């Protein structure tokens, strides 16, 4: 018992000693940190930083909107000179409040400029295009309009127009908002174009080989079946997929399988290309669905909040989203912090930045917190934040601006200021130079905000799910049996299957219809006659005496009946489907070209807004000649197709 008591006393003493040791270490640590903090404060005080009092913004949307409403009033009153002079006031206010873009205003200016150009007032149209580009530097449409204008009026200097077009392309590629409309229109157009063209091509190829196919299928039936029964059963076999509830895709693949063995090598290459495009359909539809979903997602709200002052109502909407768990929560909190900083609500801005900092210790957030400290004239805190955000050009530039207000002439301080400025120029480049020159001047003229980069929107866009389920909807329309999971591999797998089956089943499907009498014969070696003729027609064509007179007369009657039937059938096909006659006559590429022309014209008439109303156009009213021109071209091709069908 005594031993146990001694042990307990020893343990208690050890515990007390350990606690004393921790207390001593804590005191030493706190004294050291206090000394470091005192040393840092002393160092900052020795710098003699006296920050200027920056003007705080009272709000960013209402003054601009008031000036824009005034501009519309002057424009409606046709006081054009006063309206154009008011542009300078709007632009000065835009720079002063650090508003990057006025998308809605620029869109309105582009529409007004299009109207002036349609009326022949090109000078006023050019002025409006230039101001639209000035108010929205990341808006692609004014660049394309100026490119068209330059090519239209300065056709001897195409490089000027090419520069504007290139700037428009760069603006489109950088922003998913700008890329959405033209890429969706392009995907829709290409889907219609190649869908119609390949559908017509494969139907024409099946019709061309139908006589040979039915003959080869009859050879598989048992003896005793009448020719009528065999033909009926063969046609039922071809119609088996739709009769069993298959979709368009399964039926089309079934017909391609049967026509594959009667195609030439160039036609097989064209068929392979079409099937590979079919494999890419789910990917294209998926990206189109992403663009459609993007227009209704918080990502677009965040984009307009950062890049424009046109939709201030996006801030409350994003604030509600930021209260919940969301994949873009950090980006939304950072965007809200920057927005409220720019409208002068610094306390609210700091709250959002601190919440974002808890999610991710990002240098951009540190820089913007330092900017708040700079505005509130707290150089110590701003200095610490800029040091932690020195990996960004904004942090380096703002650090140099902070040290510029130091009264110290110590060499190390001067060198630190120079190093920070040079590092900002190296990493920031043109943006830092423009800021120093005052081209992007804002109400807090000494400091740069760390904005959300445009590249981030593309990164987040690629992560945006297709909430429209466009791929599934399109695939359900086309396919009934093939699941959506196998959609990207359908065309590729079918191409591989066809090329593997070619040497095997090519021995079975060897029938060839004679181009002169229509009778089916087995494939022959290529002879001197380039036409596909049966043996009797070759004898009749090359050796007049090779057949008996009765057989010759009978053969000539067969040829006349077949040519008459073939003539009327081709006329009907030429009327119903332009280009099909060319495919049937083994002019496949020419027929495919006709199908493309037919698809383009149909698209222009059915969906003109999807093809014309985008950044590359100058208004649909100026492009009526495009639709009429394509229509006239297609009518001309239709005439040549009919003429070729009527010429036997």
Written overview of the protein:
73% of the residues lie in helices and 1% in strands. The protein has 31 helices and two strands. Strands 1-2 form a two-stranded antiparallel sheet. Helix 8 packs across helix 29 (588-606). 34% of the residues are buried. Mean pLDDT is 82; it is low at 1-16, 27-42, 524-530 and 612-621.
Itemize the secondary structure elements and their pairings.
Elements: H1 2-47, H2 61-76, H3 80-96, H4 103-118, H5 122-135, H6 140-153, H7 158-174, H8 176-218, H9 227-238, H10 240-243, H11 248-259, H12 265-279, H13 281-294, H14 298-307, H15 314-322, H16 329-342, H17 346-359, H18 363-375, H19 379-388, H20 393-404, H21 411-428, H22 430-437, H23 454-463, H24 470-478, H25 487-505, E1 511-513, E2 520-522, H26 535-542, H27 549-576, H28 580-584, H29 588-606, H30 608-612, H31 624-646
Antiparallel strand pairs: 1-2
